[in-house]
Design goal:
The chain is mainly alpha-helical and about 180 residues long. Strands 1-2 form a two-stranded antiparallel sheet. Strand 1 and strand 2 form a beta hairpin. It starts with 9 loop residues before the first helix and ends in a 22-residue tail after the last helix.
């Protein structure tokens, strides 16, 4: 199996060219729509906000450092991204249950409702886009996309020397792959 670009065959090269282009187009289209769902602009949500809310929902209340570590991003990035979520009432800051001096972030009831609304809209969009697919095709696409995202995360973590970032990643995001919110 080729391990570097100069070891690829000519047919691999063409396939990899098609793959890199398809990924680029996917990234652009996903960002353009922000995977906002079916016909309702109000159901769109910034990627970083979605990933933070999703993480807090899946893992429960946690401090900024723990949240940053679980997502594989800097604490300063989390602090900057969570500020508008607190301002809009989607996330609340509370005292740590064991150490009242420490602050933890948790999803507010409004945040839970908003996240549920966005998730439902995104599921409807995924259902629409894959309506003509066989169930096995959906499963295979999901498995391969998750595997692709995991490989991206592992590459990033190894380049940044952050192997610990891998511990909280993977399909634990409600069946989704790794979440990089930078």
């Amino acid at each position: 199996m080729p391990t570097s670009p100069d070891m690829t065959t000519e047919s691999d090269s063409g396939l990899l060219e098609t793959l890199q282009h398809a990924v680029a187009v996917f990234a652009r289209r996903a960002e353009q729509t922000r995977l906002g769902g079916i016909g309702q602009v109000r159901n769109s949500m910034d990627r970083a906000a979605y990933l933070l809310l999703n993480r807090l929902d899946n893992e429960g209340p946690m401090g900024v450092k723990a949240l940053a570590a679980s997502m594989g991003i800097d604490s300063s990035t989390v602090t900057r991204q969570v500020a508008p979520l607190v301002d809009t009432g989607l996330v609340k800051r509370t005292s740590h249950p064991e150490d009242g001096r420490a602050v933890v972030l948790q999803l507010s009831p409004r945040g839970q409702a908003r996240l549920a609304e966005v998730r439902a809209s995104r599921r409807a969009l995924m259902a629409e886009l894959t309506d003509s697919w066989a169930p096995e095709e959906r499963e295979m696409f999901t498995a391969l996309l998750t595997r692709f995202n995991t490989a991206l995360l592992q590459r990033q973590a190894s380049r940044e020397g952050r192997a610990e970032a891998l511990s909280g990643e993977g399909p634990g995001e409600s069946g989704q792959g790794p979440d990089q919110a930078r």
